[in-house]
Amino acid sequence: MIYHLFQYLESAGYDFPGMGLMNYLSFRAMLSAVTAVLMALFAGNKIIDWLRSKQIGETVRDLGLDGQIQKKGTPTMGGIIIILSILSGVLLFCDLSNIYIILLIVSTLWCGALGFTDDYIKVFKHRKEGMSEKGKLAGQVLLGFVVGLTVWMSPNIVVREKVEVKESVERTLETEATVTSGRYVEEDVVKSTKTTLPFVKNHEFDYRWLSPVKGTWGWYAKWAIYVLMIVIVITACSNGTNLTDGLDGLAAGTSAVVGVVLGVLAWLGGNLINSNYLNIMYIPGSGEIAIFMSAFVGALVGFLWYNSFPAQVFMGDTGSLTIGGIIGVSAVLMRKELLIPLLCGIFFAESVSVMAQRFYFRYTKKKTGVGHRIWSMAPLHHHYQDKKAPEGPVIFPKPVPPQHEAKITVRFWIVGLMLAVSTLALLKIR
């Protein structure tokens, strides 16, 4: 809103010192991050007190984990803090007419509502399982189709091909992009199913290559494949973050690191000179995503003030589903979804640990009558904690000595940081 106010004043002929700063992506990104942090810090206490007054506390199922029972009654649904903080920075400093920002705001509210419903059922309806898995999955898949079809149909979501930076270059105040002495021809702006793929010469992969048919039907087939991939990515990211939210500060800290990388990638991909230099896809307008991700990171940092060990509030599904949805949608919009397994390696490992554990347990129980486990407990972060020994054989028994949850959290952060640096390094590896 502040951004649009300054745009209006500029178009009306007003001019005062510092007015042009609002045209810089980097300046607005910093303001967005600071606003989100301050909102989380100042509103956090009031929201936590309100949650406590309404007795909206965590219901703990005794799994024999060290320190688990002590968390009973800690206020949950703290994802409200994250959502409020993100939107405060975004609504003030983003270009709200930008299609990428519109999709991210819709995704934030959509996933927030889905998570809020799940938490509401757990807390107020006293149903520990919350929403059914099918209901939650249906909501995530529906969001994926909304985003995927918008990417397909919207004329504002395009990529530039045959970009050529000539010697005469000028940096503009308005966009922090680049204007060359030449002009773009109409064919340069295309609707494309290309995405970023590391280790190859041009860093590009086209979903058209997976189409089993050619011609007109091939055109529809490639977009169907691309939309399906978008649905899978958004659903997987949302669930992966949800599974990671099991220790104080784990999901918030790991997601903040991911958010920084996505913000950097958005800024690079939305800038003609930088994208040309790094030989990555140039996506007009996607630089605005960097401002959204700045608010995202700021909100998570502010939330960590209250969520670090020992946590004063838990984000609940209201926060975890929202975080995962934002990560998945932003990666898709920047054509970086194939980098997710590396960038979000922590979430990926947590998801795989749960799926592998369930499959192996059911398989061995059906075959031998006794369920075997791969880890002493899944998701993976619980494997390292002090807990009761599980029944039945375990391939990888719990470590000795077990680790305190604060140490597990910090070590997972370190691994996440290493994965983030590796993701950025891939931009120069072919």
Give a structural overview.
It is a single chain. The protein is mainly alpha-helical. The chain has one domain. The protein is built from 14 helices and eight strands. The strands form four sheets. A two-stranded antiparallel sheet has the order 1-4. Strands 2-3 form a two-stranded antiparallel sheet. It has a two-stranded antiparallel sheet with strand order 5-6. β5 and β6 form a beta hairpin. α3 packs antiparallel against α9, α6 runs antiparallel to α10 and α7 runs parallel beside α10. It is globular, with a radius of gyration of 23 Å. The chain starts with a helix and ends in a 5-residue tail after the last helix. The relative contact order is 0.15. About 5% of the residues have low confidence.
Q: Structural class, from secondary structure content?
A: mainly alpha
Q: Tell me the number of strands.
A: 8
- How many domains? The number is 1
Radius of gyration: 23 Å
- Shape descriptor reads globular
Terminal Cα separation, in Å?
Answer: 41 Å
Q: What percentage of the residues does DSSP assign to strands (E)?
A: 5-15%
How does the major sheet shape up?
2 strands, antiparallel
Q: Mean pLDDT score, rounded?
A: 87
List unreliable stretches of 5+ residues: 167-175, 177-187
Order of helices and strands: HHHHHEEEEEEHHHHHHHEHEH
Classify the helix fraction into a percent range.
55-70%
Strand order of the largest sheet: 1-4
The number of helices is 14
